[in-house]
Design a protein that fits this description.
mainly alpha, Recoverin, domain 1, two-stranded antiparallel sheet, EF-hand-dom_pair
């Protein structure tokens, strides 16, 4: 289990639900609704959009956007959805680019936080190809300490896979973690941690950086 993440996830979800009642900004409300589902909430919404993007254009029109929000059970009325859509449809083309959408939806992080997250990513990405896989983990992560490995429930690969699933999307786990997925995950964790200093200490301890 990732150090502190389950606890941070719970704290963040509670905090997000609390803040929801206070904010009127529609984009912030959408962000908080995602975060109320834990660190993978924003990534999950991205997956829903990706599934809806039938023609692989990586863009969504308003109808698809609203359907995606409904499929993900977001509580948003049509006016609010229109307002959010307008924020993201900067050029007024009637479509939004969903990579841009997800980056904007991600809680903002300081450069210091992004840098330490990338350090952890690079440490895990043994092969240096920009994707973390089970192969990468063999060299960095010791499965033998895992209780499920010790009592014989899981093989080493199953331990690695469960570890990767922490960072992978809840809907489409492919056993590979991209830089973007890793960043999205930690943007969620980061949202529950007030100071850069504490976030950096937590990351250094967690990844022995």
């Amino acid at each position: 289990q990732m150090p502190g993440t389950a606890r941070h996830d719970r704290e963040m979800a509670i905090q997000a639900k609390r803040n929801l009642s206070k904010t009127t900004d529609p984009v912030e409300r959408l962000r908080l609704q995602c975060l109320a589902r834990g660190s993978a909430g924003i990534k999950g919404l991205g997956r829903v959009f990706r599934i809806m993007d039938d023609d692989n254009s990586r863009t969504l029109d308003f109808k698809e956007f609203v359907k995606g929000l409904n499929d993900y059970a977001m509580m948003i009325d049509k006016e609010e959805a229109q307002e959010i859509f307008r924020v993201f449809d900067k050029d007024g083309s009637g479509t939004i680019d969903f990579d841009e959408f997800l980056v904007t939806l991600r809680p903002p992080m300081s450069n210091a936080r992004k840098e330490i997250i990338m350090q952890a990513f690079r440490k895990l990405d043994k092969t240096g190809d920009g994707v973390i896989t089970i192969e990468d983990l063999r060299g960095v992560y010791n499965a033998k300490h895992h209780p499920k490995y010790q009592n014989g429930d899981w093989t080493e690969d199953q331990v690695f896979r469960a570890f990767l699933d922490n960072f992978d999307s809840p809907y489409d786990k492919d056993g590979k973690v991209t830089t973007e997925e890793f960043m999205n995950y930690y943007a969620g964790v980061s949202a529950s941690i007030d100071t850069d200093v504490y976030f950096i200490i937590m990351m250094k301890n967690a990844w022995k950086l």
